Amino acid sequence: MTNQQRSGACHGWRGDLAAYLVGALDPQECAAVRSHLGSCPACQAEYEDLAVVVGCLTLLSRAPRPSGQCPRPK
Ligand SMILES: [Zn+2]
User: Fold this and answer.
1) Domain containing 48: what range?
2) Pick from 44, 24, 28: which is nearest to 36 by CA?
3) pLDDT attached to residue 6
4) Distance 26 CA to ligand 1 centre (A)
């Protein structure tokens, strides 16, 4: 019986991966995440999973929303 972990991404990088995807990182941090992704297949897989989720969220946030919602920060 195999007992594969669902997420094998390095613990310390998971938050950075998400921030990287939404463009919330400094250029320096982006570079660090990118170089880690290049050397870590587990984080690469996690990154691809997150990219799907973030892609869906981006689509949702583009949908017209009723007035009265929080204004989007610029
Ligand atoms: Zn990693």
Assistant:
1) 3-58
2) 44
3) 58
4) 19
Report the predicted TM-score, pTM, of the whole model to 2 decimal places.
0.66
Q: Which residues, chain by chain, have CB under 5 Å from ion ligand 1?
A: 10, 13, 40, 43
| Number of alpha helices (DSSP H) and beta strands (DSSP E) in the chain | 3, 0
> Is residue 68 a part of any domain in this protein?
no
Distance, in Å, from the CA atom of 44 to the CA atom of 39, rounded to the nearest integer, reads 9
Ligand 1 centroid – CA 40 distance (Å): 5
What domain count does the chain have? 1
Residues of the chain with pLDDT under 70: 1-7, 63-74
